[in-house]
Design goal:
The protein is α/β, with parallel strands linked by helices. It has 17 helices and 20 strands. A five-stranded mixed sheet has the order 1-20-19-11-17. Strands 6-3-2-10-18 form a five-stranded parallel sheet. A hairpin with a 6-residue loop joins strand 19 and strand 20. Helix 10 packs antiparallel against helix 11. It is globular, with a radius of gyration of 24 Å. The relative contact order is 0.17.
Length: about 650
């Protein structure tokens, strides 16, 4: 492949017409959401019973959306590949959920949460969406408390807060290290209430394999029963994708092994634009890789950085036990480099700093790819009982995995793939470029820019599901019900045939390599060249390698069994095939963005002291990609900053 710069002339992509969000109202940013709710069309309660919605995914975004839509009176069908909605990956979120309640009276506000989020995303998010997220955050806590979510409380009974990276206030509500689990159980209870009421039907162990688009509108999905293998089409007046992120393209990540890109990628192939695919968050506090046997990594909550101090030895090659290294010989490198924020810098900043000290030869542990997260100061200051109350389950999990006691020996952590800021492009209404296809939670791109602040994933998922989507979807459904959606329609028959053909192709290859071996090789390519640090040369190599690997996959993969049965190999083969296509787009997106911003760190574009160097004159836009079957088409959405000054991030 040519080593020329990635321009449209290189043949990697072409540039199409710009795209814009036309749904956000004009006027003061603090009034836009109220204005949009008022101008949105309504559906009267009697008519809602005649309207139907399909929701793909049962995590916080999907579960809360389905429960809310069912409560409103719509007919809702939920599909999830897990055996129960309670097993959605949202359950693994540990540290907390942000809300601008200002209970600590420390200067927090809706505007400050908005500002922190735009700045934390390195000015690559849309202001209108982010401000709405900050506004709605205050309602989420009240909703969840009413559901019985057991948030931590202070001695007097008030809800407790703690800090997270990238902010200087305490706005994160939490339930020890089980926040995601408790919030998901709250949403699940609301969902099951609607199941009992008959407004919602849940189909577990079903995977979406295609989108049915009729007369330009999303009208249904093709799903496969993962137990029987039966493939069917299901129809509705609108489709909501809440299927999570695509971090498992890297093979090793903090995501559950089953997390995949298939639902949004198949929608992308049907015409939905895919925005900012190269924006992949690397989380700084993951238990380091221990060997080739691993299929996933385990996250230690960012909340630990409230009381834990991160350090490495001052000199390379100092392999003494951590407790034998005196304080004067320790480099608390985050506190040294970023005194204003210390250990609570944003995730992208902390991750690169950890990588840098390990690259200098000062990493710890058997592989040298690790830094210490030390609680000795906190234990001395607070006592073991307080530390145990705040983080006890996380400490127990670390001990079970590593056989080391973090109460007496510092934890070892290293960055790992965690969250994806990219996803399907949506407008202010959370509607994709396909009318009737709405995308919520991590499956869309809308709220986090080039880096997500900690404790904001749960906030976005519940904001979208409980408060935003029920209002904006009603505006679309007010024109319904729509005609002509059943299995006899040519578009439905074509989608069903395409799924059968793809399943048949996977089963017919009859090669020698396992699906897992292809997935692992793809992950290594992306991690090495499209991970924490990217270069033009490395990305060009990765692009070529991914293309060659995809060709080999369709020539030499082995998928035993048949399609008419429970077949995990077939499930994974379909998902890896999609990851191989996505991996190419990720590399193209990273190549075309000749700047560093947030998690996208191009080594060619950095400041004198090694920080990300943005190019706002040329890249202050959302990159929304159109699928063509060949070189993709880039559509740019220019980002305007009226309320937050566009300037270099500083956490020093």
């Amino acid at each position: 492949m040519s080593d020329t710069a990635p321009t449209p002339e290189s043949g990697l992509f072409s540039v199409g017409a710009p795209i814009a969000d036309t749904k956000a109202p004009a006027g003061p940013i603090g009034e836009r959401w109220d204005a949009r709710k008022f101008t949105a069309r309504l559906v009267n309660p009697a008519n809602r019973r005649r309207l139907s919605v399909i929701v793909i995914g049962s995590g916080l975004a999907g579960g809360s959306a389905a429960a809310s839509l069912g409560e409103a009176g719509y007919g809702v069908e939920v599909f999830c590949y897990q055996d129960s909605p309670r097993r959605a990956h949202s359950i693994a979120a540990q540290g907390g959920i942000n809300a601008a309640k200002n209970y600590r009276n420390d200067g927090d506000s809706v505007y400050r949460l908005f500002y922190d989020t735009v700045k934390g995303g390195d000015f690559r998010a849309r202001e209108s969406n982010v401000y709405r997220l900050a506004q709605v955050s205050v309602d989420i806590i009240d909703q969840c408390v009413a559901q019985g979510v057991p948030f931590a409380r202070e001695y007097g009974g008030l809800l407790d807060n703690r800090s997270f990276g990238g902010v200087q206030v305490s706005r994160t509500f939490y339930a020890r290290g089980q926040t995601g689990q408790q919030l998901l159980l709250g949403a699940y209870q609301a969902l099951e209430r609607q199941v009992a009421a008959g407004t919602v039907r849940v189909h577990a162990r079903h995977e979406m394999l295609d989108l049915v688009v009729i007369d330009g509108r999303a009208r249904g999905v093709v799903v496969r029963d993962l137990v029987t293998g039966v493939v069917t089409t299901r129809f509705a007046d609108a489709v909501v994708l809440a299927s999570g992120g695509y971090g498992n393209a890297f093979y090793l990540s903090t995501n559950a092994v089953g997390c995949n890109v298939t639902a949004i990628w198949r929608a992308h192939r049907r015409g939905a634009l895919f925005a900012n695919p190269c924006f992949t968050q690397i989380h700084p506090t993951c238990i380091p890789v221990s060997g080739e046997h691993q299929s996933k990594l385990t996250l230690m909550s960012e909340s630990l950085r409230n009381d834990g101090r991160i350090w490495v030895p001052r000199t390379a090659g100092d392999d003494r036990r951590p407790n034998d290294i005196p304080d004067r010989m320790r480099d608390y490198f985050l506190e040294r480099r970023y005194p204003a924020f210390g250990n609570l810098v944003p995730r992208d900043v902390a991750s690169r700093a950890a990588k840098n000290v390990c690259d200098e030869g000062r990493g710890v542990g058997p592989t040298g790819l690790g830094v210490y997260l030390d609680f000795s100061d906190a234990l001395a200051r607070l006592g073991r009982s307080v530390v145990e109350e705040r983080y006890g389950n996380l400490f127990d999990m670390y001990r079970q995995i590593t056989s080391e006691d973090p109460y007496t020996v510092p934890m070892r952590i290293y960055p790992a793939v965690h969250y994806t800021m990219g996803g399907l492009w949506v407008d202010y209404d959370l509607q994709s470029t396909i009318p009737g296809l709405f995308v919520i939670g991590e499956a869309n791109f809308s709220d986090h820019g080039a880096n997500r602040l900690g404790a904001s994933a749960l906030m976005q998922g519940l904001a979208d599901g409980y408060f935003v989507l029920p209002n904006t979807l009603a505006d679309y459904l007010a024109a319904g019900p729509y005609e002509g959606a059943d299995e006899r329609h040519p578009a439905a028959r074509a989608a069903l045939a395409a799924v059968h053909d793809r399943v048949g192709r996977l089963l017919a290859v009859g090669g020698r390599r396992t699906v897992a071996s292809f997935h692992k090789e793809l992950g290594a390519i992306l991690w090495d060249h499209c991970g924490m640090e990217r270069t033009r040369q490395g990305l060009l190599h990765a692009l070529s390698a991914v293309r060659e690997l995809r060709e080999e996959f369709w020539r030499d993969v082995t998928v035993p069994g048949s399609g008419e049965e429970l077949n995990h190999a077939l499930e994974r083969a379909g998902r890896v095939a999609d990851f191989l296509e996505l991996g190419e787009l990720m590399c193209i997106d990273a190549l075309h963005r000749e700047e560093s911003c947030g998690c996208h760190f191009r080594a060619e574009h950095q400041t004198a002291d090694g920080e990300a160097l943005r190019d706002d004159d040329h890249y202050a836009y959302v990159a929304a990609w159109e699928h063509t079957g060949g070189p993709p088409i880039l559509h740019k959405e220019d980002l305007a900053f009226e309320y937050v000054e566009l300037k270099a991030r500083s956490y020093k």
